[in-house]
Every structure is written in structure tokens, then in C-alpha cells.
Amino acid sequence: MIGGTLLAVFLCDWMWWISIPLVASVVLYYIALPIIEWLERRGLDHSKALWVFILGLTLLAAVLGPALLSWFTTQAYLVQEKLPAVLNRINETLGSSIMGMEEEYLWMQEAEVGKKINAKLELFKEGFVESYLPNVVVYVLHWVPCMLLVPYLTFFFLKDAHRLKKLLMRGVPNAFFEKVLLLFHRLDGQVKKYFCGLMMMTLLDTVTLALGLWVLGLNFGVFGIVPSIFLGLLCAVLSWLPFIGSVVGCLVIVLVCVIQSAEPAWLVFWAVILFVSVRLLDDFLYTPMTIGRSLSVHPLVTVLMIFAGGFVGGVTGLLLVMPVLGVAMVLGEIFGQVWFDARLRARYHWGRQLRLRAAREGLSG
User: Fold this and answer.
1) H-assigned helices in the chain
2) Residue 118 placed within a domain
């Protein structure tokens, strides 16, 4: 399973323009499917339920989209305006810390550690806005065209998923068909329950973090209700990527606090405390209430696979290694329960011999 996962990550990195949208579409399919099934239980057929869901999603985007776009544009402008000052503040803080360490440790003073670090920071600060920032923007923008495939693929997954499942089942030999169909149905239901729990956990994380940020905003005058919801949702979605996603989410909140506040020290402190508290609630309360720990991969395997995926596939590997590992575990479980069933293998070999005998008799006749 691990070898197959890393090979798949390598291939996905080679074809990132289709692999990333495909995985994202599968995730969105399992997220949207329970809503469509709920509409079907209310009397709508599949096609009407799908279009009602799309209409509701479009209306929600039309209501929230302008406010989020305005806030995001404002933040981008503030980043461009305040970034040099923020870098100067970071440089001054690090410089004072290094000077204090040099006073304590003479070997650092003799090695001129502070002078070398300050030189590197000055070089980075001078070239960040002119060199690094445009490269980051270009790197983000080159993902935009392939991500436009996501809603297209998701729509056809929701519309024709039953046909895709039938197409997959046609490749299963007749002797294994019944058990594979049963296992596929059970695992499909398990994955569906997992994503339903994941959405519930994401909603709880979003509400908790957004409420906390909004309260901090009342005290420090920085966060509004819409930006708080957006940041809470962003951090909740980033937490789907184990460990790394949580770190990135915390850095995003810290960056917004530094940009929006003139004196961000206490705001950053309370924002980090809030973020850590939400993560603890997530680990000890929300996760057992929603997806459960029985569906999780062992933490050691998770960390090793994230580093291995990053080594094999770079950023693409970091994003895809855990979903691909989940697929490999499902396929490995099905293969293990079916292929190593002695009765089913005997049926398969006996059926193959009968077909060969019938073919020989047909040729001789």
C-alpha cells in the first residue's frame, strides 16, 4: 500500500494538472452526495435534486462572494502596503534577540552570527517584494486554470456516478463479483460517513474559530463577522491536511493580525492561544463526536507519509499523499479479503478451466 501510494504520488506530480482537480472533485462529490440524497428522500428525482443543489450553491456564492472578494482585495492591498514595515519589524525583533544571545554566548559573538543573519535578512527583505513575491503570485496563478476543472468534474461525478461504478465492476471476474460488490458498497458507505463527519467537524471548527476571532476583533478593532467566518473556514479546510495544514492556518491568522493591527503583539498572542485551543477541542472533542478515531491513520504513518510524499512529489505530493493513501488502503483491503479467500479463488480457477475446456471443444467441433 505504501509503495503503491508513493508511485501514485509520483505519477500525480507528473500529471498534476489533472490529478489535483480529480482528487478535489472526488472529495467534493462525497461532500455533496449526502445533500443530494436528502433531497431525493424528500421526493425529488436525482436530476432535479442535483439542479436544486447547484442552484442553492450558486445563490450562496452570489450572496457571500462579493463580500469575500472585497475583503480579500483589501487584504492584498494591505499586504502590499504594509509588508516592508512588517519585514522591518521582524528584522528588528530578530536582531535584538540575536544580540541578547550573543551577550550570553561569546562563541556566537566571535562567529559573528548576528551580523551574518542580519545580512541575510536585509538581502531577503530587499528582494522579497521585487523578486520573491511576483514568483509566488505567478505560482499561485498557474494553478487557476486546472482548478477550473473541479466544478466540471464534480458535476459529472454527481450526475453519472452510478455509470462509473458499473464500468468499474465490469472488470471484476465473475467468481469475485458478489464479494467485491458487497465490499465496495460497504467501503463506499464508510467513505461517505467519513466525509459527512469531516464536514460536521469542519463546521464546528469554523464556527468556534470564527466566533473567537470576532470576539478578538471587538476588543482590538480588526476582524469583522465576514472576515472571521472566512478565516475560520480557511483554517478548518487547511486542517484536513494533517499537521502541515494546521501550521499554515496558524501562520495565515498571524499574518492577518500583523497586517491589520498597528500593535499586533497582544493580538497575535491571543490569536495563537485561540487557534491552539480550537485544535485541542478538535482533537479531544470534535473528532470523536464526528468522524471518530477508528478511521484515522496512525500518527507515525501520517508523518512519515507526508514527508515521503513531499520528497517524491513536492507540493503536489504534500496535497495528495493522504487521499491517495486512503484509496490505496481501501483497494488493499478489498484485494486482501477477496484474493486470499480460498473458496473464491477455487471458484475462479474452476470457472477458468471450464471456459478453456468449452473453447477447446468449440474449436475441435
Assistant:
1) 2-14, 16-41, 46-104, 106-110, 113-127, 133-141, 144-147, 149-169, 174-220, 225-238, 244-260, 265-281, 287-289, 299-339, 342-364
2) no
CB-based contact 242:305 (threshold 8 Å): no
pLDDT digits (tens, 9 = 90+) for 254-302: 777 777 666 666 777 788 888 888 888 877 777 666 655 444 566 677 7
Give the whole-number percent of the chain exceeding pLDDT 70.
74
**pLDDT tens, position by position, 51-79:** 999 999 889 888 877 877 777 777 667 66
Burial (Cβ within 10 Å: 0-12, 13-18, ≥19) of residue 321: buried
d(Cα 125, Cα 89) in Å, to the nearest integer? Answer: 11
Sequence-ordered list of residues with C-beta below 8 angstroms from that of 338, at least 6 positions apart, any chain:
176, 179, 180, 183, 344
How many separate domains does the chain show?
A: 1
Q: Is the model more confident about 81 or about 37?
A: 37
Distance of CA 259 to CAs 93, 233, 238, 247, Å?
16, 20, 21, 18
- Residue 91 in any domain: the answer is no
Nearest to 317 by CA among 105, 45, 6, 25: 6
Nearest 5°: CA angle at 26, between 24 and 29?
110
Which residues have C-beta within 8 Å of that of residue 212, sequence separation ≥ 6?
A: 274, 277, 278
- Cell 492577518, residue located: 256
The widest CA-to-CA distance across the chain, in whole angstroms, is 99
Per-range mean pLDDT, top range of 148-157, 236-245, 297-306? 148-157
Q: Contact, 324 vs 12, CB < 8 A? A: yes
Q: What is the pLDDT of residues 182-197, one digit of tens each?
A: 777 777 776 777 777 7
Residue 242 in any domain: the answer is yes
Assess if residue 192 is contained within a domain. yes
Residue reference for cell 478515531:
293
**Of residues 70, 56, 62, the one with CA closest to residue 226:** 70
CA–CA separation, 286 and 290 (whole Å) = 6
**Could you list the residue range(s) of the whole structural domain that residue 236 is in?**
182-296
pLDDT of residue 296: 54
Distance CA 18, CA 156 (A): 15
